[in-house]
Amino acid sequence: MLNLRERLVVGVAEDNPTTKPMYGAVRLASGLYTHDTPERLADEIQLACDLMGRTITTFMPDLERPIFYPWPRPATRTLRWVAAQALHEAEHHLGDIERQLDVDRSS
Question: 68 lies in which domain range?
Answer without folding.
Answer: 2-106
